[in-house]
C-alpha cells in the first residue's frame, strides 16, 4: 500500500512539473502561486509585451541601511485601469537579502499593494513599474 501511494505521489509531481514546463507564461502568474510569496524581484503578468504608453505608475523606492535593523516600505496604487503587469526590480544584488511581495491586488485588479523588506544591516532599493489599460 505504501509503495502505491509513493508511486502515485511521484506521478502527480511529475505531471505538475510537465504542465508548468509546457506553459512558459505560467511562471509569473500570481494566481497559481498565491499572494504573500516574498521573492527578490517581481515580474508578474504579461510584462514581455508591456508598452511604455500603458505605464500607469512608476516609483523609485530607496531606504538606506541602518545598523542592527531591517528596513521596509509599502507601495500602494489604486486607479481606474486594470493592471496587466507589475514589476518590482531590485537595484541591489540578490545576496543583499531584500524581498518584495504582493500583499493585495495585482494583475487583473485596479489596485496593488507591494511590501519590500531588507535584510538586517542592509538597505533596499527597488524600481516599481505598473502597467495597465482601461477595461474594454
Automatic annotation (TrEMBL):
InterPro entries: MBF2. Residues 1-21 form the signal peptide. PROSITE patterns: PROKAR_LIPOPROTEIN. It comes from the Eukaryota. Pfam families: MBF2. Keywords: Signal. This is Uncharacterized protein.
Amino acid at each position: 500500500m505504501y509503495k502505491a501511494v509513493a508511486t502515485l505521489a511521484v506521478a502527480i509531481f511529475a505531471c505538475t512539473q510537465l504542465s508548468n514546463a509546457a506553459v512558459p507564461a505560467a511562471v509569473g502568474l500570481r494566481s497559481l502561486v498565491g499572494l504573500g510569496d516574498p521573492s527578490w524581484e517581481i515580474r508578474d503578468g504579461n510584462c514581455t509585451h508591456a508598452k511604455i504608453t500603458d505605464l500607469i505608475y512608476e516609483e523609485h523606492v530607496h531606504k538606506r541601511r541602518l545598523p542592527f535593523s531591517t528596513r521596509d516600505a509599502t507601495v500602494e496604487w489604486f486607479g481606474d485601469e486594470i493592471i496587466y503587469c507589475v514589476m518590482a526590480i531590485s537595484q541591489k544584488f540578490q545576496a543583499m537579502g531584500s524581498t518584495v511581495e504582493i500583499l493585495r491586488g495585482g494583475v487583473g485588479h485596479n489596485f496593488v499593494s507591494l511590501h519590500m523588506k531588507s535584510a538586517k544591516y542592509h538597505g533596499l532599493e527597488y524600481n516599481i513599474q505598473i502597467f495597465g489599460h482601461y477595461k474594454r
